[in-house]
Amino acid sequence: MRLAMCLFKFFPYGGLERDFLKIAAVCLKRGHSVTVFVMEWSGEVPEGLTVKLLKANHWRNHSRTRSFINKLDNELHDNKFDLVVGFNKMPGLDVYYAADVCYVDRMQGFSKVLSRLGGRYRYYALCEKSVFSEESKTISLMISKDQMKRFQKHYKTPDERMILLPPGISKDRMVTAKASDIRREFRRRYNISEDEKLLLMIGSGFKTKGLDRALKAIVLLPNELKRKVRLFVVGEDRIEVFAKMAKKLGIKKHVKFLGGRNDVPEFLLGADLLLQPSYHENTGTAIIEAIVSGLPVLASDVCGYSAHIEQANAGRLIPSPFCVKQFAVLIEEMLTSPERDAWKANALQYAKTEDLYSMPEQAVKYLEEIRESNERCNAN
Predict the structure, then answer these.
(1) What is the CATH number of domain 2-166+358-379?
(2) d(CA 41, CA 34)
(3) Could you point out which of 15, 117, 206, 257 has its C-alpha 20 to 30 Å from the C-alpha of 2?
(4) Is the pTM of this model over 0.90?
(5) For residues 327 and 323, what is the distance between their CA atoms, to the nearest angstrom?
(6) What's the number of CA atoms in the CB half-sphere (13 Å) around residue 377?
(7) Ranges assigned E (strand) in 182-254
C-alpha cells in the first residue's frame, strides 16, 4: 500500500507521536510505503519514512491548522494514495487514529462558554465532526472505550466505524532479571537513599497531566513523610512555569525536571509510585508502562487506561470530582501501605497474561483490511 500519514507536529516524546512511529514502523516492515505530512518535525527521521513539511505561518493556532489542511488537500489530490491515515482530526481521512479526547465533550461546561463562541472552537469542532459524524466515511481506530462512548454521544457514530485497539506498550518496559540492579544503580546515580520515596510523573503536557495537582499535594503531606519525598518529572513542556510554582510552594528541593528521555524504563524501576492526576486523558500510556514494570500507580479515574489499574489491582484511583487533599492522603497511604509488594506482584502477573503490547500490529492489520474492503467496493 501507498500510505499517507498526517499529523500537525512531530516531536520525539509525545504519546501520539510515539504511537504514530510504532504504526509506521510496522507498515514499513510489512512492505508498505509511508509518506508523512506535517507542519513541523523535530528530531531524526527514521529510515524508510518520507517526510513532507507543509509549513503554515499564522499567529493563531487554528489558522495555522486550517492552512496546513488546505495545503494537505492539494497534496493528496495530486498524489494518489491507497489510504490517508490521520493522527489528528481533519477532513479527508480514510482512517483516524484516535489519540485525542472528544474535543466538543471536553469543551462543555459554563467555564468554556467564551471558548465555544470563538473561531478556534468552531474550527476544531468542525474538524472533529468531519471524522465522527454519521455522514462521514472515516473509520476510527480507538484506544479508549470511554472516549468511544463520548464521540457516539455527540455524533452518533455507527459502531462499525469504530474499532477498539489494545494498548501498544514497548516490551522494553517489562521487568528483567536485572531489575534490582538497575534500580540500585539508578538511585545511586541520582543520590536517592533507600528510605526516600521517589514519586514519578511521565509525559509531555504538564498542565493536562496535573503536575500542579501533584505539587500542591506534596505540600499537604505530613512533614515526616514530606522530608523523604522527591518528585521526578519526565517530559517536554514549559518547565519554568512549574519550577516557579514549586519554588513558591516551598518544595523546590523536592522536585527535579528531567526533560524528554529515552531511558524511561530505568525511571520506572527506580521509582516508588507513579502519579497520573490528569485533568483529562484519552488513555494514559504511562499507566500501562508502570504496570508492566511492576510500579504501583495512583491515577485519576478519568484516565482512559485507569481501568487497567483496577483490573490488575496494581494501585489506586483518585475519584472524581478531584480533591487535592484526598489526593495527598492517597499518596501517603500508598507510600506507607503494606500492600506495596502485592501491587507489584499483581502488576507483573497482569503484564504476563494481558495483551498490552500489540496495538501497532493490530492497527496495521486493520489498515490492510480496510484497503481490501475499499478495493472490493470499487470493483463492484
Answers:
(1) 3.40.50.2000
(2) 15
(3) 15
(4) yes
(5) 6
(6) 6
(7) 197-202, 229-234
